[in-house]
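Q: Here's a chain of 336 amino acids. Please give me its 3D structure as C-alpha cells.
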Amino acid sequence: MAAKKMGLQTVKFQNPPSILATASIVGPKEGQGPLKDYFDIILNDNMYQEKSWEKSERKMLKEAVEMAIKNSKVPYSNIEYFIAGDLLNQIISAGFAARELGLPFYGIYGACSTISEGMSLGAKIIDGGFADNLVVATSSHYCTAERQYRYPLELGNQRPPSAQWTVTGAGAVVISSKPKNPRITYATTGKVIDMGQTNSNDMGSAMAPAAVDVILQHFNDTKRTPDDYDLIITGDLASVGKDIAEELMKWKGFDVTNKYSDCGLMIFHPEQDVHSGGSGCACAAVVTCGYLYKEMINGKYNSVLLVATGALLSTTSIQQGETIPCIAHAVAIENL
C-alpha cells in the first residue's frame, strides 16, 4: 500500500526533505532585472568565456551545482545523486555537466518544468530512504533555445507580443534528510495537457491549462486551499498565460489573485523588451534558487506552492504538424 500517497497524484512526505542550499547564475539581461540582488553570479556576457552558447550553458550548470554543494557544506563525496535536465536535444547541458561532475546521474526532461520535476523526484528519493543528500539542477540559454526551437538569432526575425524571452541561467538545489527549513512537504505530479495550441511564440496560452490542472489536483488531493499558502507561483506563463490561469482558477471556484505570481513576470522589468515575459528551464530555477529560497530563509514566506510549467514540443513535432503538449508539476515548500 502506498502509505504516503494522497488522492490521485500527490505524495505527502513523511519526513519532509530539507533544502540545504541553493545556487543561481544568470546572464547580463537577467542581472539587470528586479531580482538582481538575489542571484549568486551575474555574467558579464552570454558566452561566459566559452566558444559557443551551448558550452556557456553547460558551464553555468556545472558551476551552479558546485556552488550549491559548497553552500550546503555537505562533503562532495556525500552527494549521492545528481538529477538534471535542460532544453537542448538529448539534454546535452546536463549530460556533459554530469561528465565533468562525476556524480551518479539521472537525466530528466520536463522542458521548463524540470526544476519542480527534479525536486519532486529528489524529495521522493530522500524521503524513501534511498539517499541522504542529492543535488537537482537545470539550465537554459536564450541563444541556444532560440536557434533550437524557433529561429537562429542571425536571421533577425521579429518576435510577436505573445513571445517570451528564454532566461539565460542555471539553478541548483541541494536536498537532504538533515532537518532544516525550508522543507519539501508535498509533491503533485502533473499530467500532459494539450488544448490544441500550435503557436510556438505563445507558450503561455499553451501551458496555462496544465498549470491549473495540477494546482486543482493538488488542492483536491491534499484538501488544502489557496489560504494555506503565502505564495502560489508558476514557472513561466508570463503575462498572457498568467491571465488565462487566473481566469481558469476563478471558473473553478478559486480566486488566487492576491497571492499568485509567475517567475516569468518577476525576473524582468517590462521595459527590458521581453514582450510577454521570461521563460525557459532557468526561469523557475533561478527565481526559486535565488529569490524564493532566500526570502523563505528570511521569513517573508513560510509556505510556497511552486508550479513549474513546461511545453513538450520539439522542432520535429512542429514539422509534423503536431500541437503543443504541456506539463506542470507542483511542489510545496514550507518552513515547519
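Q: Can you summarize the key feature?
A: The longest helix spans residues 53-72.
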